[in-house]
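Now for a concrete sample entry.
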Amino acid sequence: MSDIQTKIEEARLQAREVCATEGSDSSACAVAYDELEELSAEASHQRAKTDEGHKTSLQQYCDDNPDAAECRLYED
C-alpha cells in the first residue's frame, strides 16, 4: 500500500473515532473528515498525474504519423 493510501486509511479510522466520541455534529468530527477529504483529493491528483504520462497506442501512432488518415481531426 502506498504512503498516501496508508495515511487515508489512518485518517478514516481517526475520523470515525473522533465522531464516535465527540458526536457526529461536532466541529472536531467535521475537521477530521475535512482532513480525510484533503488526503483523498491529493491521492486523486497523484493518480491523474501518472495517467497523463501514458499514451494509448493510437495517440503514440498519431504523434509519429500526424498525416495518417486515422489521425485526422475534422471540424464542424
In short: The radius of gyration is 22 Å.
